[in-house]
## 1
Amino acid sequence: MRHNSEPKYGRYVFGFYLLLFAVWQLLFSLRLIPDYLFPSPLQVTRRLWELGKDGLLWPSIQATLVRMAIGFAIAAGIGLFIGVFMGMSRVVNRCLQSLFLGLQTLPTAGWVPISLLLFGLSDRGIYFVIIMSSVAAVAIATSDGILHIQPIYLRAARTLGTPAYAMPFSVILPAAAPSIVTGIKLGWTLGWHGAVSAELIKSSIGLGYLLYMGRELNDAAQVLGIMVLTILFGLLLDRFLFGLIEQRIRRRWGLVSPT
Amino acid sequence: MAAPVKLSLTQVTKTFDGGGQKVEALRPVDLEVREGEYVVLFGPSGCGKSTLLNMIAGFEAPTSGTISLEGRGVTRPGSDRLMMFQEHALFPWLSVIDNVQYGLLWQPGLRFRRGRRRQKALQLLALVHLEDFADSPIHELSGGMKQRAALARALAPDPKVLLIDEPFPALDALVRAKLYDELQDILVRTRKTIVSVTHDPREAACLGDRVVVFTDRPGRIKTEIQVDLPRPRDINDPRVAAHATRIAAELKEETA
């Protein structure tokens, strides 16, 4: 685990997962629950292998990832834009903060029905759910980051001759970067929830769709397998894409001791 | 001293509005700073000397009176009156050299000339003996090194007047003494015009050509003490100490 500052823990983490699978296998072997409801790790792996061979798995993963890449890029852009305004104006902040905090209490799946009504079964509806699920988190983190910038940086920037138009990109966004990255990580996770929730209901491809299909076919192995995959991809991107960016920023700022 | 006047303050006052109550911070101040001169504003805390420095920098507007640099009125912050803060205030998202060349970005003619900016920044880093740390992140520098980097950054846009708010308060005595030497060395080499603020009479005597003593709040100029000692001055030189005693006596008389 490269992101971990102490690589020796990697072994324990690996062991932990091994143990987790062993317990799963053990529970299965005890046959407390019939195997069509509670499949073994082996059955789940085999089912995923079959899905892969049938050409259903990779296109689905790809579809979900592409939707996320596009949807989240739009969401992050909107969130940053709104967040900067919220961070620079107390009035805008007061007005939007309660609204966004309120929206965040809505479970991401709660956006699906309205998206169905607005967009029908089209892909645009999935983008809508992704964006609505993640914009608030990015905007709030951005504005919080900006509001908590140490005034000394702004004063230094001004005395060094920074013109007003250059302040957002030269000083304000970089100074708020640690908080913004945290918000983007959170926004990504929420968007990921939203994407899979939306795909459950209104798609013919994607991880959420495979989950839905599994349930329709009473295929517990497929349901569990896709769940594991969804968790895995969410975790991988969180750790290795955003995690590494976050780590880099924190290191540069001296917020963690360099390894 | 026949050098031309750089900075001039005429009848400058400051009154704060504290909850409907007017608080007078500064009585009318007249002050002229000549080219190449080092003027120290000295006084008890709360005497308005930092407020005065903030007004010269353009962070605050005077309640009345005018401040002008080379005949032009001061209205907002700018790198011609560059201020160094008590905290180093280096940007943690930039490397040491990017901090130093930051101010050059906004200089006419340098915006799109990366090579020129970098070259100038390297010269300044050499001046403060940090050339080996050009690409280091800020947090890897020690306290004294950070102050030196901040000094290099402040010198980069070639300010007409350098304003220093309590030059090196957060450093231990040894590092401070070294920084005094370096600051004087740079001062002698660049003949910078400097206005700084302190409440330490030793520091005032060691650094200033002229020490302006302020009264307690509401502040006004009580007297000015000329320090005609050769540079570089050693902070432990008995002649510096003698001046420091005189400066401190003025203050004691004031607070008594």
Note: Chain B has a mean pLDDT of 89.
## 2
Amino acid sequence: MLQVQDLSVHYKTRRGFVRALEEFRLDAMPGETLGVVGETGCGKSTLGKAILGILPPGTHVEGKILFRGRDLTQLGNHMYRRLRGEEIGLIFQDPMTRLNPLMTIIDHFVEEIRDHESVSSAEARRRAKEALVSMGIHESRIKNYPHEFSGGMRQRIMIALAIVLKPSLLIADEPTTSLDVIVESQILGILQDLKRAYHMSLLLITHNLGIVAEACDRVAVLYAGKLVELGPVRNIFHKPLHPYTQGLLASIIHLETKELHSIEGGPPDLIAPPSGCRFHPRCPYAQPICVETIPPLVEFEPGHFAACHFGNKFL
Amino acid sequence: MTIKEPPRAEERETLVRSSSSIGTLVDLLLRNRRTLAGALSWVGIGVLGAFVFVAIFAFFLAPYDPQRIFLTPPNQPPSLQHLMGTDDLGRDLFSRMLYGARTSLEIMAIGVFLALVIGFPIGLVSGYLGGKLDRVLVLIMDSVYAFPGLLLAAMVALFLGKGVFNVGIAITVIYVPTYFRVTRNQTLSVREETYVDAARALGAGSWTVIWSYIAYNVLISIPVVFSLSAADAILTAAGLSFLGLGLERPTPDWGLDLSDAQKFLTSGVWWSSFFPGVMIIILTVGLSFLGEGLNDIVNPLLRKERA
Amino acid sequence: MTSLGDTARPELSDEILRLDNVIVHFPVKMSPIQRLLQREELVVHAVDGVSFSVRGGEILGLVGESGCGKTTVGRASVRLIKPTSGRIFFAGQDISKFGGGKLRTLRRRMQIIFQDPHASLNPAMTIGRAIGHPLWIHGLAFGLQKLGSDAFGRWVQQRVLSTMREVGLTPEEQLYEKFPGDLSGGQKQRAVIARALILEPNLLVVDEGVSMLDMSIRAKVLELMLDLKHRHGLTYLFITHDLAAAKFICDRIAIMYLGRIVEIGSARDIYADPKHPYTKALLQVIPIPDPDKRKEKLLPRGEVPDAVHPPAGCRFHPRCPAVLATCGWEGRDFVDFLDEHLSDPKRAGEDESTLGPIEHWRAEGLVARLETNSLSVEKAVERVKTVLATAPVAMTRAVESVSSLNRTVTVRFRPPDLLLQTSIKNRLVECLLYQ
């Protein structure tokens, strides 16, 4: 369904090129939930923007993004606008970037529907109402404005808006980061239900490993613009092969945490990233080869890839 | 469907990166020199720079003394000896234009600078402290602001009498409300920033907060206002002179010369009206370019930062 | 008045901070015309009667979701906000009404760290200057006049550098000259901590101090906080929505919901055996980073209601999975339930015409009323009773009567039981289940 091949994204800045993504590869199957995790500066939101075609002008892009056979990197603006909404839905961290404070929520839906399909106004309203009610929004409130809803409700509205045209791929960039834990649980539940009902693929971009463990089938771990590990969720959590993944998992604070762990140092400067393996300055196991050679992505187990020279030592 | 870029806390580009606001500004201008806004700003800087140069070196640049009366018949058209011709008293127009730059810039400098020096601190204090003081000040400033600028300047000029300095004061009076308003608005939004709360939590008193935490962060929005009000000030000053207020007759001033030259237009003497007018227009437009360009560069960043 | 700074530091087991029925109400922002039209004065009930105390050397966690009032409590504790009523005691002194000079002196003993490290530092100040600024602000207390400006400046610089070393902001000479924009999130937060620490306060209020940091560095900053606590005998009020972090670091915790503390006591006991249904819900939804441990969750319905009109009785009652008939049911709850009922075409049937539209219902306290026409009044009463039968048992049992008078249908609820704090197993709980 979605195949990212050798994608490199370099932002142009005054100090030089920021190598936000480097030779990135990924693939998402129909109907699966793929988690894309990483911390600040890892490139996960760049990935989302690249797929959606909303990178800033002047950004250097190499490689291919194949969506249902079509290469999105070659797509013109007009075609991209049609694609967004109809075939690829998206959800952001802050619903207010998508919702117009001057439009009622039902108008948002009507506009979205009529932008892509030629239906009558009445038909659009009917479908809009249906979508909203199914998200738990009372009919009496469909003529309200976005600011009259709470954060959690706005997120639901944004989700409903994203799926109203039944896209086959849904990209969610930090969908619950600004929400409280209880609402977060509710929203995750909704996303999973919807995914099942409409047989969509979900690309869940987040830094929250907890929700990844809850909701994802496979996980891709990013560090400093590179894919460092990719595999089924249980393999990633129980048998992480890359030292960064190991460090990340160890640093999660959960109810059974007895000791605090963290990873030394900080994320590298992406204008002049470290040579070889980008994680080597912080890796407890670094060897000379890690400084010299970029580790290739190797399939150490069926379906479980890692970009580490010593991956097999952790099997 | 169109998409708006969601702001990310980590990626915010902070605006004030050095304690020198000028440094930040120059940095911004350099960064943006290829955009339209940046290009406009640089054009404006160029124009302003050119006029400042002329004003300072008028003595060396002018071929003649601006007051010197040539004994040839008055109202000579432009020629090799008199690049812009002569006016009705037989004075070289080109020299008068060059010295006129000095007059205009002096008035502008006094007027706008004083307005800034008065309006900025009052705006800061009023915006930060709020309450009755703020309400009273806003009332006063708004009333002055609502008054038609030229009329007010004319009244003040009449009251104070003639002279470059007095015209400068008249200009100050009109623009203090502008600086007050802009400063106050910026102060109101900076006041809500977390680091201001943090400063109060540290025990900083109001003056410390205003001086160390708010002033620099508000200063960045001043250059825009400065340029735009300067442009306006030139026009107002020219208007005053045109009306015969403010400046003594023989002073080389574009507005005055324009006023004097009007009556000869019908006789086909175009140069004595044209050149002063052109000078006014070029300087005003140049300053406007600078102001608008800066506005386009600085304000989106300010908005993003406060988002 | 520098007496507070010069007296002996409070003993470690003394009570450092105490809040006594603190209430903080904020006026609701509205235009003057709206204000004229409103019959009652609208306020946001941010904090509605909160009491607790923190002993020297202990870490009290203040946990809850957004809107529960924990940030307001934190700010009130350091007197950034003046409480609407109630009292706040610091080291035995009533500081609720302190102002100006007294407050400024107090600031040296209590500090607050805000959530967003990127917004907490003045972008126009270098790190060195920012961290040292508190010393300049309180310069007099440190004998600025005696030493003279230059010597004092050098002394401040030394203090700043050593504090930077202590919080791990190294290499300190280099970072001293940098601006906040040049630092990472973790470094910024360390700078904020250094700035708060340089005055050697007794109490540190940490408002979501690590929530905005990456996970891999969160642990480091938490470790730093614990380390500093041991070394300086600090007391913390740790405000967070992250129950897992709170469990690790706190000695006692208080769970807040919509302006009130619903459970407070020993952290170990509360986590092992949470009593209040809201606490149970919160603990349940914490994601476990183990895909094998996915489980069905019993989530409370709906969302946190708005703090301008908090629910009656126990504020959690509209969402509580263990709600009783006496928990505070009122007219509004019925109207909300009916709204849900009418919105679902499968359930509503013909009720839309008899009982709707929902906007015609009026809820006032314990009562909900509908003005309809005299013909359908009887039918409406019947339908209401049928609809109530599908409602949660607790709500149905709380209904005193469904009646009609002329054209009005009235649903009346029984008044709720008085809610008190009960002491049970090392904690206090505010819940009728345990009264």
Note: The CA atoms of residues 44 and 286 of chain B lie 4 Å apart.
